[in-house]
Specification:
Blueprint (H helix, E strand, L loop, with lengths): L1 E4 L2 H13 L6 E4 L15 H15 L15 H14 L5 E6 L2 H11 L9 E6 L4 E2 L5 E2 L9 H7 L4 E2 L2 H16 L4 E6 L2 E5 L5 H5 L7 E2 H11 L6 H13 L3 E5 L7 E5 L8
Parallel strand pairs: 1-2, 1-3, 3-4
Antiparallel strand pairs: 4-7, 5-6, 8-9, 10-12, 11-12
Length: about 280
C-alpha cells in the first residue's frame, strides 16, 4: 500500500494513523508542488515542466523560500516514477490518494490521477469532502485540511477508500486537460472537484487591504490575510505578490528582502485604495 498526500503536515497524521492500525501499513509519499497556482500548459512534457520550474524560480528567488529551489526538494516527477515502479513490480500493490476539500489537494489529485490510468482498479481515492469528523474537544467539524483530522479518525476514514472509476479517469482527466490549457494562473475550488480558473492577480485586491499606511512586517500582513480572508493561498505566493505591489508602486518597502520578519511594507503615500 502506498499512501499519497499533498501537504507536509499530512505526513505526520497518516504516519500516526498507521501506528494505530497495521492494516494501513505502507509507504507514505508526498506530491509537493502546488498545482493550484502557476502555469500548467504542457505540464507533462519536458518543456512544460521546465516552464513551470522557471516560474517558481521567479516566485521564490530571494527570501524565505529560496531553499525550495534546491535540487530534489520538490521533484514530483520522481515521486510519480516511484509510484509507477511499485505498481509495475507488484501486481497486488495499491495506491491510496488522500485528499481534503481544498484547491491544493484537488489540483494535486488531478495532476496525479491523469498519469495513472493504466493502473485502473488499483488507484484508490479517499476524498474527505463535506464529511464530519470529531476534534480533540469531541465536537463535530468539517476539516478543510487532512492535518486537522485526528490520527484515530483516519482509521474510520479508511472505510471510504474506493477505486477511481474508469469514468472518473476519463472525465476528470478531460477536465484537467481543459484547466491546463487555460492561461489563468490561479485555480479555486468551486465545490466537489470543480476547479475554477482565475487570473494570477486574483488575490491582490484582498491582500492589499492588509497593507496599511504604516510600515508592517510582511509576515504580519500575510498572517492577517490568511486569518481573515475567505480564499487564501500559500505564503510563498503571497510574498511574491507583495513584492509585486512594490514593483508597481502600490506599496513602499524597507528592510531586508531575505526574510519576511525583516521586510516591512506600507501603502504607497501617493496611492489610495478605492472603498
Amino acid at each position: 500500500m502506498i499512501h499519497v498526500v499533498f501537504n507536509e503536515p499530512d505526513l505526520d497524521v497518516i504516519a500516526k494513523a498507521i501506528e494505530m492500525d497495521d492494516s494501513l501499513n505502507g509507504q507514505i509519499l508526498i506530491v509537493r508542488d502546488d498545482y493550484a497556482v502557476g502555469p500548467l500548459e504542457n505540464i507533462y512534457t519536458p518543456q512544460g515542466i521546465e516552464n513551470r520550474k522557471e516560474w517558481w524560480r521567479m516566485v521564490l528567488e530571494g527570501g524565505d523560500y529560496q531553499h525550495l529551489l534546491e535540487e530534489g526538494v520538490v521533484n514530483d516527477e520522481l515521486v510519480l516514477e516511484k509510484i509507477k515502479g511499485s505498481l509495475e513490480n507488484d501486481p497486488n500493490e495499491e495506491i491510496w490518494i488522500w485528499a481534503a476539500q481544498n484547491k491544493h489537494d484537488v489540483s494535486g489529485y488531478f495532476w496525479l490521477m491523469a498519469q495513472l490510468a493504466e493502473f485502473q482498479g488499483r488507484v484508490m481515492i479517499l476524498y474527505l469532502n463535506n464529511l464530519p469528523f470529531i476534534n480533540e474537544k469531541g465536537n463535530i467539524f468539517y476539516p478543510e485540511w487532512l492535518s486537522q483530522i485526528l490520527p484515530r479518525e483516519f482509521i474510520k476514514a479508511k472505510k471510504l477508500a474506493r477505486p477511481i472509476t474508469p469514468s472518473e479517469f476519463e472525465v476528470d482527466a478531460d477536465e484537467w486537460n481543459k484547466i491546463c490549457k487555460d492561461a489563468n494562473g490561479i485555480r479555486l475550488l468551486e465545490g466537489g472537484k470543480k476547479l475554477l480558473p482565475k487570473s494570477i492577480e486574483y488575490y491582490d485586491n484582498e491582500l492589499l487591504k492588509f497593507v496599511t499606511a504604516d510600515y508592517q512586517k510582511v509576515s504580519k500582513i500575510i498572517n492577517l490575510f490568511l486569518l481573515k480572508s475567505k480564499e487564501t493561498t500559500g505564503d510563498a505566493f503571497l510574498l511574491w505578490r507583495l513584492k509585486a505591489f512594490v514593483s508597481s508602486a502600490l506599496a513602499e518597502v524597507q528592510g531586508s528582502a531575505k526574510s519576511m520578519n525583516h521586510l516591512e511594507l506600507r501603502k504607497a503615500t501617493t496611492h489610495k485604495v478605492a472603498e
